[in-house]
Amino acid sequence: MSDVAAIIDDVRARGDAALREWSLRLDGEAFAPARAAGDVRRDALLAAADAVRRWHAMQRPADVECEVLPGVQLQRRWVPLESVGVYVPRGLVSSLVMTAVPAQVAGVARIVVCTPPNGAALVARAAELLGVTEVWAVGGPPAIAAMAYGTESIGRVDKIVGPGSGYVNEAKLLVSRDVAIDLPAGPSEVVVVAGRDADPRLVQLELDAQREHGPDSIATVVEVNGDADAALRAVEARAPEHVALLGADAEQLATRIRNAGAVFVGRHAPVPAGDYATGANHVLPTGGWARSVGGLGLETFLKPVTVQRITEAGLRAIRPTIEALAEVEGMTAHAAAVRR
């Protein structure tokens, strides 16, 4: 059993007592409600939140209804999750915006934020400005376990979202047996595609910005060198979190990239713009997950419910199909259930 698994099992079994011990051991402080303090640049925070709110509001999926056969009416409606746990890495108020604001737009009733004690005051101040009231100073796998299984102080949630370290992502994957997660988000990645006439200075700025996330960040360059197809294959094979397209080939490649969390097109679209200000979500798939999943969107905080309405005539019409397939599968009680 890994250390992360042991922490999760302990918090699940002993609740607050284990959470307190692991917090002291890993963070040097016992977990506690975070007290708001510090200057988070209110105008900048609210501007970022407004952009996120407007972009995510556009993403609400439509409820649909269809009478698939006479007397057989189906409805699929989208409803918000009741509770969401948000993990915010140390001091990253922008990640709070990217997770809490879409949850608010979706209509999530309870948003629980966990963040490491060092920086928790700043995150709590940002949460206060956003109208989020439950913020806990606790980080790492203990925080993930508390949100997944609940303790005497922190009630369990229906889904856990947010980026984090390798340990946080391991914890999220482990608890995903019992609670939904968004995706493993981190460490950060960028592939800079340098096309014809790409400015070397801009290429270096993108690499430096990504490496600022930490020593485990991945920042690489793909040279087009007249072969856009080869460059595209190199990007698709990596399926990175971010792709920055620079040079004359940028627009040509932009519409062809399938495997990426977010694509930034041209010299005036630096990756940090998406981190902070465009409104697009910066919680994105890493480690090759972009082959199959996208970043956070409004649907992350919603779930579809299917409603089926069948009239007497509708049931009579579909009864032969049900009985025939139930017979093939040996489900006699299923066949009997439609004879009413």
Summarize the structure in words.
The model has no long low-confidence stretch (mean pLDDT 96). The protein has a 6-stranded mixed β-sheet, sandwiched between helices. A 4-stranded parallel β-sheet has the order 10-9-11-12, with helices on both faces. With 340 residues, it is of the alpha/beta class.
Number of helices: 13
CATH topology group of the largest domain: Rossmann fold
CATH superfamily of the largest domain: Nitrogenase molybdenum iron protein domain
> Poorly predicted ranges (pLDDT <50, ≥5 residues)?
none
Instruction: Note the beta-strand portion.
Output: 15-25%
Note the gap between the termini. Answer: 53 Å
Secondary structure: helix percent: 40-55%
Beta strand count: 13
Please identify the top-level CATH class of the largest domain.
Answer: Alpha Beta
Domains, number: 2
Radius of gyration: 24 Å
Chain-averaged pLDDT:
96
Shape: globular
Question: How would you sum up the major sheet?
Answer: 6 strands, mixed
Query: Strand arrangement, largest sheet?
Result: 1-6-5-4-7-8
Describe how the helices and strands are arranged:
Elements: H1 3-14, H2 16-27, E1 32-33, H3 42-57, E2 64-69, E3 72-80, E4 83-87, H4 93-106, E5 110-115, H5 120-130, E6 134-137, H6 140-149, E7 159-161, H7 166-175, E8 180-181, E9 189-194, H8 200-211, E10 218-223, H9 228-238, E11 242-246, H10 250-254, E12 262-265, H11 271-276, E13 302-310, H12 312-329, H13 332-337
Parallel strand pairs: 4-5, 4-7, 5-6, 7-8, 9-10, 9-11, 11-12
Antiparallel strand pairs: 1-6, 2-3, 3-13
Helix pairs in contact: 1-2, 1-6, 2-6, 3-4, 4-5, 6-7
